Amino acid sequence: MQSFVVDTPTLSIGCEVTGPEDGRPVILLHGWPDDARTWDGVTPALHAAGWRTYVPFLRGFGPTRFRAGAAARSGQLVALALDLLDLADALGLARFAVVGHDWGARAAYIASVLEPDRVTRCAALSVGWGTQAADQPLSLQQMQNYWYHWLMATERGARLVEEDRLALTRHIWTIWNPGWTVPEPDFAATAASFDNPDWAAITLHSYRVRWGHAAGHEAFDGIERRVARDPVIHVPTLTLHGGIDPCNEPATSLGKEALFAAGYRRAVLEGVGHFPQRQRPDLVLAELVPFLGG
Questions:
Q1: What would the pLDDT profile of 220-266 be if each residue is shown by its tens digit?
Q2: Using omega within 30 degrees of 0 as the cis cutoff, is the peptide bond preceding 183 cis?
Q3: Do the beta carbons of residue 40 and residue 107 sit within 8 Å?
Q4: How confident is the model at residue 69 (pLDDT cuts 50, 70, 90)?
Q5: What is the number of structural domains in the chain?
Q6: How many Å separate Cα 282 from the centre of its chain?
Q7: Which residues, 6+ apart, have CB-to-CB distance to 216 below 8 Å?
Q8: What is the pLDDT of residues 193-219, one digit of tens each?
């Protein structure tokens, strides 16, 4: 595995590159609260299927840093998508597949809307498309599931994110994986990425801005409007959802076919929580490898 820093216009992105040098490129994006280690159970099979994997740390995580001290610490989802496209540019990847989980899934969807000629395949875990808008309908169950979103809109929540992030994230990992305990060494290996100096600011902005509790950054206004105006994805897409996901209930990814114009498959992984790639990488790979074309 090669680990290095890739400079983009905004970020110096920590990135791990593994697999055959002549392999087809696939970028794997982690979510919140997680990091690049989330794909360790998936990448070997992708390499065996002929894929070269590029696994970055998102803005605010691990070794990734802003290049300018005054840059806005935006957690907007379109910013994450632009980070993905900037990374591909810096790596010299004209075309690539993308697999994302949680925040990474949202970034993958948005990048597929913005540049469908570059994204060959889009796979998203634990998040349905069309669930971005602040005025989206939510079931009472999903409102309950989003307790941490509402908490982060408060000063108490901000203090928790800033001052007790390990207790918060360990609790979330526990409740988001019913019936399965994430091994403590696995959590510890990833939790180190939350020491990034921008983690708290980006976390709070991301969950506040999407519900109107914080202002978005003007630089992204045009892209936000573009995605909202035409959210149809013209890239073959696979959505995988844990059947007992207590963060985003499986119903949130149901009935989205009209938002995909180039083929769409949704699979529910029975008995699996919010981290399918960690809990059951075998089930994820059974869907993912054929979809990617390995």
A1: 999 999 999 999 999 999 999 999 999 999 999 999 999 999 999 99
A2: no
A3: no
A4: confident
A5: 1
A6: 20
A7: 74, 76, 209, 224
A8: 999 999 999 999 999 999 999 999 999
What is residue 294's predicted lDDT score, i.e. its pLDDT? Answer: 56
Q: What is the pLDDT of residue 133?
A: 85
Distance between CA 100 and CA 27 in Å, rounded?
A: 8
**Residue 27's CATH number:** 3.40.50.1820
Distance CA 256, CA 131 (A): 10
Over the Cα atoms of the chain, what is R_g?
18
Residue type at 39 in one-letter notation? W
Report the SS3 class of residue 136: coil
How many angstroms separate the CA atoms of 145 and 125, rounded?
A: 17
CA distance 98 to 53: 10
CA distance readout (Å), 252 to 33, 175, 196: 20, 19, 31
- Asked if 136 contacts 149 with a C-beta cutoff of 8 angstroms, the reply is no
Looking up tokens 């216009």 gives 9
Q: What is the pTM of this model?
A: 0.97
- The tens digit of pLDDT for each residue in 16-62 reads 999 999 999 999 999 999 999 999 999 999 999 999 999 999 999 99
* Per-residue model confidence (pLDDT) at position 70: 85
Q: What's the token pair of residue 21?
A: 């040098």
Residue 89: phi and psi, rounded to 5, are: -60, -50
Cross-strand partners of 28 = 99
Beta-carbon contacts of 189 under 8 Å, excluding residues fewer than 6 positions away, are 37
CA distances from 256 to 76, 129, 196, 263 (A): 22, 7, 35, 12
Tell me the residue range of the domain where 260 lies: 2-292
Report the SS3 class of residue 15.
strand
Burial class (CB in 10 A: 0-12, 13-18, 19+), 160: middle
